Structure formats: structure tokens, C-alpha cells
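User: Before I run my own analysis I want an independent prediction to cross-check against. Here's the chain; please return only the C-alpha cells and, at the end, one sentence I can use as a sanity check.
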Amino acid sequence: MKGVTISMFDVLSEPQTVVAAKAVLVSRPLPGGQATPMHIPDGFLSTPVALLLWLVAIVAVAYALRRVNRDLDERKVPLMGVMAATIFAGQMLNFSVTGGTSGHLLGAALAVIVLGPWAAILVLTCVVGTQALLFQDGGLLALGANIVNMALVGVAVAYAAYWAFRRLTAGKTWSVVVGGFVAGWLSIVIAALLAALQLAASGTSPANVAVPAMGGIHMLIGVGEGLITAGALALLLAARRDLLVAGQVQAANNKGLWVGGMLVAILLAVLSPYASAHPDGLEWVAEQRGFIDTARSAPFSIIPDYVFPGISNERVATIVAGIVGLVIVFVVMLLVTASRRRRESAPTL
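Assistant: C-alpha cells:
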């Protein structure tokens, strides 16, 4: 994602001016000089590793779809589209971290706490898939890896961490927010470490280089993820407590949440041209460790780098691209849930 600049730490040893200069050379520029968010591109992973991760992703997403169709709480079905739109837009807002690098929202913890693991997997898969296919953010061969890291591992880690924390605190209401922070932080760190191991298995960067580099910077990025997750959960506790705390009275309808969620997503898209100009954690590590040049561009271009073609004002083009993206993921999730409703309402013979 790309974010409104929020400096959090200054602990890396290399002078910021040197790192920032490198970032300008490496990053693909966007309006206002911001860098393109960078999921794993093609070229970073070997073909066998990428294909294996594609297989894992297909099997896991298919199973998640089956479980959503069978088990998802009916009141949470409409929220999948709003959650997908909000996460998509949120990932367009990088926040500065330290030493000329930035981080972006993953959203796995927020999604899994509100929707449960299977729906969260589908939401993150929809977001990551749309980013790769429509915006050329992340490679096509590497898409399986990006789904595994963010939609599968990110969700699984966040789910386990959140509910373990809730049990340890005897389900106290405050543990929703604090547990969300812990889940958000861990989801970022573990997903980054897994990506580092994938780089090592592909021969792109040795494990003793990739693991500490990816782990170190993403421990800082995870703080931003945790704070965003905790803040969003605090707002939900105030507005729709029934979605987070068992035994609470169910709200009459979700129309207010639909409208509010979509307005937040649109606002994030409008702010996206003002995101941090620095490269994100993976791109920064790739430059620092010397494998940035192995990245391969997508074989096609639809809305590359989140700039809508044909609009001369690049800030406006970025906003339009963001709104197009959030509408697409919203509609895709509505179609998934609509197919579920059709099956439920079909007469049995």
C-alpha cells in the first residue's frame, strides 16, 4: 500500500539521504513521486517454487469458498464486499517507516476478526488478485505466492494470535483492540519471513540474508499494521459491538455499515496520491540486497501503477484507479455471496 507519511522509527544505520536516493532510482514513480506498492513480482521466485505455491493457493482458496458457502454467519455476508473495498483502498496508502522505506496495510487481522478465517481468505484473495491482474502489482506467476503469504498465512497467523490472546485475557472487551494489534503485527512479520524463505528457496537471496532483512523491516511495518487494526476495531466496538463481541444484541441491518465502509474506502482512494514516496519493505530489501534487477514486468498493461490511462492529471488518475479497483473488489465479493444466497434459496426436491 501507499500511505500518508507517518514516521515511526529511525534505527537503520545507512544515512537516509543515501537510501532515499536509491529509492528514487529503483521505485516506479507515481503521482507526487510516490513509489508503486510492490507485492512479489515475477522474477523473484523460481518457477518450481512459484508453481508449488500456486497449487497450495488454489486448493486452499477452493476450500475456503466451500466453507464460506456452508458456514458463514448470514449477517456477515454483505460485509465481505465492504471489507474487500476498504482493504484495497487502504493498501494504496503507504506510511513511512524508517530510513527511506515504507509499509502498507495487509488487512488480514481486521478481516479475520470481523468475518472469520474462510471469508477473510476470500477477501484477501480478491484484493491481491485484482491488484495483480488489473494494476500489475505483483507478478502473475508469483500470484500464488502472494495469495499464500497474505491471504492464507496472514489470515491464519492473525486468527491464531487473536483468539489465543482473547483466551488468555478471558475474553475481556479491551482484548479485542489489543488482540487486534498483536494479530496485525504478527501477521505482517510471519508473512514477511515466509516470503524471505521463498526467496531463499528460489536462490534469489540466501536465507541468512533475506530472513533478517525482511524480518527486521517488517517488524517495524507491523507496528503500523497493528495500530491501524486496533483503531479500526475500536471504531467497530463503538458502532457495531455485535460484530465483535459474542452475546451482544444484533443490529437490525447493515445498511449504515455498508454506507460508512464504502465512504471510508472512497476517502482512502482520494488520499492515495499523497501516500509515502518511499519503496515498501520488499522493494527496499531487494535494492539493499542486490536482487531488484531480477524483477520482470507484466506481459500486459491495464491500469499500471494505479494510474488510470487517458487522464492527464496524475493525481486524479490515481484516485480514479483506486475507485475503480475498490468497486471491482466490492462487486466480486457481492457475486460470491449472491451465489451463496441462490443456493440457499433454491427449492429442494
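Sanity check: The chain has one domain: 16-345.
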